[in-house]
Amino acid sequence: MPADGAADRRNDSPSSPLPATPVLTGNGNANGIGSLPMNSNFRLRLNPRQDHQPESYEDLQSEFTPILFSSLERYLPPNLLNVPRETKHRYMREVLRRYSTEGERNRVQKHREYRLKITSSYQPLYRDLYKLNATDFFTPSFLNAFMAIDRNRDESIKSIMSEPAPGIYTFNMLQPRFCEMLIAEVENFEKWILETKFRIMRPNTMNKFGAVLDDFGMDAMLEKLTEDFVRHIAKIFFADVGGFSLDSHHGFVVEYGFNRDIELGFHVDDSEVTLNVCLGKQFSGGELYFRGVRCDQHMNTEALPEEIFDYSHVPGHAIIHRGRHRHGARATTAGQRINLLLWCRSSVFRELRKYQKGFVNWCGECQREKRERIRQAVTVKRMELFRGQGEAAS
Ligand SMILES: [Zn+2]
């Protein structure tokens, strides 16, 4: 299995994986931390204050992305929630520094400079694509499902989804016009790359073609897509891998066909939840094949018969699944296929995973082993019982 999550993480957008550790790990030790006004011990709360409205840190410079501070603010100790913004910033910065290495911080800084180099020179073809405009982007069925309020919303979201195999959901999502525009924008970006001979980073370790949308200005748009739409889907279907806590993304397009990538080997994504939408154009082949969800330990175990599932892309249609759902893409044999990928991650889920031991409830092999262990225990018990009866009879 060539691209395990760990392998992918090295090459992918450094600013998208939020340093996951700070959220839950404050151990009350303030070693090495300079003088801050409050003499707390740099803890964060385990559970966020959902009703707290975080501030914007866009204008404050530091080695961490401003959005990280906004999302971390809800985890501050209660006595810090309403202190001046600069104080909160310093506090959170110290927490973050303790949990990210210097190498990691340099990488984030370098990537920020890389993005700035692109966005300061690249001229977008369609500026409308860079801000999420739901009515122009989405099909009416998709949009309407999200319009419903609260409790009804879950039901209406469920109603537009098909589940062709366990843990895999498909739905009609993007308008043809939006797909065309996004493809044209990516082609325009590719043209810019050729003209300027700019050396871009490809989306991950497995694709030689394609582009990271976050790197040329679509970061905010995709963040809104994650926040306002994907998180709500994840809450319903993928609560066991972070659900509503998805808080960062890696958004890119992949291109298959002549002069592009041909196929994609068997792998898992570096994501909790992956949204994959086909943008077009016309093509043959390129089916996705799925082979069951696996934890790190069981990555290379056999698929069970009920885990084998193939999916054919339809332009405008989305498929959403757990990142750990093993899959690959068959060869695109004719034409050109372009897909939009959104890898959504949850820093809270990643942090919690470190402390979890034993059977994983979303791993097909863990569940199989668990059933097997129960079966054996029942057999042993039954034999003991029979033996007991036999002795009683004799
Ligand atoms: Zn497992």
Automatic annotation (TrEMBL):
Which intervals carry biased composition (Basic and acidic residues)?
A: 1-12
Which InterPro entries has this protein been placed in?
Answer: Oxoglu/Fe-dep_dioxygenase_dom, Pro_4_hyd_alph
User: Pfam families, per this entry?
Assistant: OGFOD2-like (PF25238)
Metal-binding among keywords: yes
What keywords were assigned to this record? Dioxygenase, Iron, Metal-binding, Oxidoreductase
Output the superkingdom of the source species.
Eukaryota
Fe2OG dioxygenase domain location is 247-346
Q: Could you tell me where the Polar residues compositional bias lies?
A: 24-36
State the Gene Ontology terms under molecular function: dioxygenase activity; iron ion binding; L-ascorbic acid binding; oxidoreductase activity, acting on paired donors, with incorporation or reduction of molecular oxygen
Give the region (Disordered) as residue ranges: 1-36
According to its UniProt record, which cofactors does this protein need? L-ascorbate
**Annotated protein name in UniProt:** Fe2OG dioxygenase domain-containing protein
Protein source organism: Mikania micrantha
What lineage, starting at the top, does this entry show?
A: Eukaryota, Viridiplantae, Streptophyta, Embryophyta, Tracheophyta
